[in-house]
Amino acid sequence: MSFHSFVRGAARCAFVTTLGVQFSLAGMQAGAAQENSSHGRHVTIVNPYAAGGLGYELAQTIGDRLKKLYDMSVVVEARPGGNTIPGTMSVVKSKPDGHALLINSVSVFAIAGSIYKKPPYDPAVDLVPVAFVASAPMVLVVHSELPVKSLADLAKLAAATPGGLSYASIGAGSAIHLSSESLKRQLRIDATHVPFGGPPAAVTAVAGGHVAFMLIDVMNALPLTEAGKVRPIAVTNRTSAERLQNLPTFAETGLRGFDFDIRMALVAPAQTPAEIVARLNSQIRAATSEAAVHARFYKRGVQVTDTAGPQEIAKVYADDLVRWQRLVKDANLDGSQ
C-alpha cells in the first residue's frame, strides 16, 4: 500500500473504504509479525529538519518511548536542508522492511507534486503512511519593536513602508512560505520572502529585527514570545495553544479559512508489507499515548495524536492535498522549482 491509496481516486470515500479494508487485514496479520523478533528491533527515524524543531522533538520523544516499551534500538538521523528532499530520498531508497522511517509534515507531501517541475519522488508512489503523530497551530509573530498589535496594524505598516516589509520562512515552497503568501494576498500587502534553514533560525531573525514577521508553529514561537523578543498577533487555532489562550484566532480577526496547522506524520518506503506497517502503527500509537508525552507537548502548543486510524489518516492527506495544491496555484508557484 502506498500514498496512492490516500491521495488518488475518484472520491474521498474511496480512500476511506479501501484503506479501512487494507488496514483491517494488516491488523489481523500484525500479531504474527510481532512474534518475529528479527523484525522492528532496529529502526532509524530520519528527521529532515534542523535540530530543535518540531520534527526533531517528536522523533526524539517517539524514539525514546519505543526503546522503553519494546526494547528497540532507535536512532534519530538528522538530514536537514534541501526543503526536506535529501532526508526524504534517503528513506525512499531504503529497503521496505520497517527499519527506516521518515518524520515529515503532511503538507510537504501534498506540495511536492505541484511545486516541482521534475519531483525527485512521488509521495503517491514512493512512500506509505505509517502514523499521524501530532499537529500544532501556527502563530503570526512580529518583531517586538514594531508598532503592530493586530493584522490591521500589519497591513497599515506594510502600506506605509517603501518596498514593503519582509517575512521569514523555512524555505521556498514550504508550508510556512505558502501560508505566508496566502496571508499577503488576504491582507493585500507587499512583503519580501526571506528563507532560512529552519524554524529556530527563522524566528530568531524576526526577534533580531532582520525581518518583520513570520508564521511559525507555536512550539518554536513560545520561547521568544515569552521572552518578549517577538509579539504574537494571531493563531490558527487555540486547541493546544494553552499559553496563547488570550490571542485571537485568524478567524476571529476576519480571515476565514486560515487554519494552516502543521501536521506531522511518520512514513515508510513504498512496498513495506502491510503487516509491518500495522505493527509500527500500533507501536507508535502506544508510544504517543502516554500522559507524560501528551502533557510535555501540550504545554508547548503541540497536540500529540495517538488515536488516528486509517480513516483519519486518509482524511488528513486528502484534505491537505486539496488545500496545498490550491495555495501553490494561487501563489503562481506551479512547477517553480
Structure overview:
The protein has helices at residues 4-7, 12-35, 54-70, 85-92, 106-115, 123-126, 151-160, 175-187, 199-207, 218-226, 274-288, 291-298, 310-330, and strands at 42-47, 73-78, 100-105, 127-136, 138-143, 165-169, 191-195, 213-217, 230-235, 262-269, 303-304. With 337 residues, the protein is of the alpha/beta class. The chain has 2 domains: 4-135 and 263-330, Bordetella uptake gene, domain 1 (D-Maltodextrin-Binding Protein, domain 2, 3-Layer(aba) Sandwich), CATH 3.40.190.150; 138-253, Periplasmic binding protein-like II (D-Maltodextrin-Binding Protein, domain 2), CATH 3.40.190. Strands 2-1-3-10-4-11 form a 6-stranded mixed sheet, sandwiched between helices. The chain is globular. Mean pLDDT is 83; it is low at 5-38.
